[in-house]
């Protein structure tokens, strides 16, 4: 996002932790939070994912959008596997998932783990707001991308933390929840997000080239088409 597009007034009393993967959605969430005046601290995870080029994409987004130093937490979710994104023996599907079916790209408990660590980081830096790019419209059927999950986690956060019990409380924001991918692209473009810096592909190559075939690529491509905006994605 161009620096001129960000809110000129950053309220340091509105500290927020932004889960930033390096993908289209999280880059948009960061831009939206900045435009609303939040003082943003970005957090990413090296969790054993096969598409680790997204980690480099997150650094590019932070450099362009001007936040505090980006923090990366290392986890070993590949030690338990169970997902095409963390287990090399499970192939990333290139066909659409059937309605009501949770695809093999779902990483067991990923958003629960990520938000839990973000919650601890928020308490350390004195932030009362957490932002996540969960979406219940153009998504792949993941159970931890639904409003019910976000609401339940916020309730948990406010009974499990000092900030919730003694402080101003914890607020979990999922501003993309009811937006289509086209809506997201439109909003992010208006805020100056450079989507050419981001990676969405489940199996991007080491140079950040997207496969163009996985479900994440198809949703991203459709989003740019629906928004009527040129797709800057680099395909391998």
From TrEMBL:
Q: Which biological process terms from the Gene Ontology are attached to this UniProt entry?
A: tRNA queuosine(34) biosynthetic process
- Positions binding ATP in this chain are 20-30
Free-text cofactor note: Binds 1 zinc ion per subunit.
Q: Nucleotide-binding among the record's keywords?
A: yes
User: Which keywords appear in this protein's UniProt record, sorted alphabetically?
Assistant: ATP-binding, Ligase, Metal-binding, Nucleotide-binding, Queuosine biosynthesis, Zinc
Gene3D superfamilies listed in its UniProt record: HUPs
Please list the cofactors this protein needs.
Answer: Zn(2+)
Task: List the InterPro entries.
Answer: QueC, Rossmann-like_a/b/a_fold
Which domain of life, per UniProt? Answer: Bacteria
Which Pfam families did the record assign? QueC
Pathway of action:
Purine metabolism; 7-cyano-7-deazaguanine biosynthesis
Q: What class of enzyme is it?
A: ligase
GO terms of molecular function: ATP binding; ligase activity, forming carbon-nitrogen bonds; zinc ion binding
Report whether Nucleotide-binding shows up as a keyword of the record.
Answer: yes
What does it catalyze?
A: 7-carboxy-7-carbaguanine + NH4(+) + 2 ATP = 7-cyano-7-carbaguanine + 2 AMP + 2 diphosphate + 2 H(+)
Q: Where does Zn(2+) bind?
A: 201, 211, 214, 217
**What are its E.C. numbers?**
6.3.4.20
What NCBIfam families has UniProt attached to this entry? 7-cyano-7-deazaguanine synthase QueC
Q: What does this protein do?
A: Catalyzes the ATP-dependent conversion of 7-carboxy-7-deazaguanine (CDG) to 7-cyano-7-deazaguanine (preQ(0)).
Task: Please give the HAMAP family that the UniProt record associates with this protein.
Answer: QueC
Q: Which family does it belong to?
A: Belongs to the QueC family.
Q: What is this protein called?
A: 7-cyano-7-deazaguanine synthase
- What is the species listed in this Swiss-Prot or TrEMBL entry? Litorivicinus lipolyticus
Q: Which gene encodes it?
A: queC
């Amino acid at each position: 996002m161009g620096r001129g597009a960000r809110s000129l007034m950053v309220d340091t009393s509105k500290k927020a932790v932004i889960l930033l993967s390096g993908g289209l959605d999280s880059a948009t969430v960061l831009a939206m939070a900045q435009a609303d005046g939040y003082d943003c601290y970005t957090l990413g995870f090296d969790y054993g994912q096969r598409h680790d080029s997204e980690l480099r994409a997150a650094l590019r987004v932070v450099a362009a959008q001007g936040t505090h130093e980006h923090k990366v937490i290392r986890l070993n979710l590949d030690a338990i596997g169970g997902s095409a994104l963390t287990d090399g023996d499970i192939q990333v599907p290139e066909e659409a998932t059937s309605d009501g079916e949770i695809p093999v790209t779902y990483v067991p408990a990923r958003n629960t783990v990520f938000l839990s660590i973000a919650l601890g980081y928020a308490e350390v830096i004195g932030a009362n707001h957490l932002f996540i790019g969960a979406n219940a419209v153009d998504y792949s059927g993941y159970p931890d991308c639904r409003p019910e999950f976000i609401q339940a986690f916020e309730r948990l956060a406010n009974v499990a933390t000092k900030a919730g019990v003694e402080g101003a409380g914890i607020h979990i924001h999922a501003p993309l929840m009811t937006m289509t991918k086209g809506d997201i692209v439109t909003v992010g473009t208006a805020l100056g997000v450079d989507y050419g810096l981001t990676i969405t592909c489940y199996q991007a190559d080491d140079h950040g080239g997207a496969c163009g075939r996985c479900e994440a690529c198809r949703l991203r491509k459709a989003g740019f088409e629906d928004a009527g905006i040129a797709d800057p994605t680099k395909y391998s």
